[in-house]
Specification:
The protein is mainly β. Helices cover 13% and strands 37% of the residues.
């Protein structure tokens, strides 16, 4: 055999030996439970981790919204332009901008946690209902979570138009000409407040707070509110009124305790 043939034979044998060693190493790695990990492609960012669920809580913040001063004269609404609206009320009705209760408290104030919450809260699938009844919006002021359905209902046998005027979310303007009509909408972004109006009945108006949590309440005919199931922590609580604007206070709660936070708006 020539020297050249011998060299070629030895080279081939060496290559086969190296391949066999590599194959044995890979086989042993698999037997030992090792796994190969793929490197991320260049320029590909890892997906952000979802926000951690908020801790469960059992604390409560309660309070009342007092009104100080002379209440402004309530505007009597003129309903003559729509025969249905006029016939729906046997007594005069008044504008809802400032409603002072008999006990000196204020209606239609939304109170909510403005700062201090951590984690994420599930979005309810149950809709908030905004009804049109007797040519008024019910409720006049309300809270809703971002992404939660808003069911708009016409309970009147007359044409209503619902015109939402957000600054951050998408504006909409829809008509409901028949009694019993329902329309589903939602707001995807946080916004405080979102104003609603009816272009057919100029006196009709409502306001919504679009929040990312369920910790809010609106005052009624006693001027009180209750925010339940708060996790322990320190919070900024805001009370907002459509005419008198916002006020804030700080409160710290722990465990299942209940603390009172009262506000006073001056006329």
């Amino acid at each position: 055999m020539s020297n050249r043939a011998l060299i070629l034979l030895l080279s081939s044998a060496l290559s086969l030996s190296l391949l066999a060693c590599g194959g044995k190493k890979d086989e042993d790695a698999l037997l030992e439970g090792e796994e190969e990990t793929a490197e991320p492609a260049a320029g590909t960012a890892a997906a952000p981790a979802p926000a951690a669920p908020a801790p469960a809580g059992s604390a409560t913040v309660t309070g009342k919204i007092a009104f100080q001063g002379t209440a402004p004269k309530m505007e009597k609404l003129k309903l003559d332009a729509d025969a249905f609206c006029k016939a729906a009320h046997s007594q005069p009705i008044y504008a809802q901008e400032v409603v002072v209760n008999g006990n000196g408290t204020l209606q239609h104030v939304i109170v909510y946690v403005k700062e201090g919450l951590a984690g994420s809260f599930p979005t309810p699938s149950e809709p908030v209902v905004l009804d049109q009844k007797g040519c008024r919006y019910y409720p006049h002021v309300f809270g809703i979570q971002a992404g939660q359905p808003l069911k708009i209902v016409n309970s009147d046998d007359t044409l209503h138009n619902i015109h939402a005027l957000p600054k951050t979310n998408e504006e909409f303007n829809i008509g409901q000409p028949f009694k019993g009509m329902e329309t589903l909408k939602k707001f995807d972004k946080l916004e405080m407040p979102v104003r609603f109006k009816c272009d057919v009945h100029k006196w009709m108006g409502a306001y919504a707070a679009v929040l990312n949590h369920p910790f809010f309440a609106t005052t009624g005919d006693q001027g009180t509110f209750e925010i339940k199931n708060l996790p322990a922590g320190t919070y900024v609580i805001e009370a907002w009124h459509e005419k008198y604007g916002p006020q804030t206070q700080s409160v710290t709660v722990s465990g299942s305790e209940s603390k009172a936070v009262d506000f006073t708006f001056k006329g």
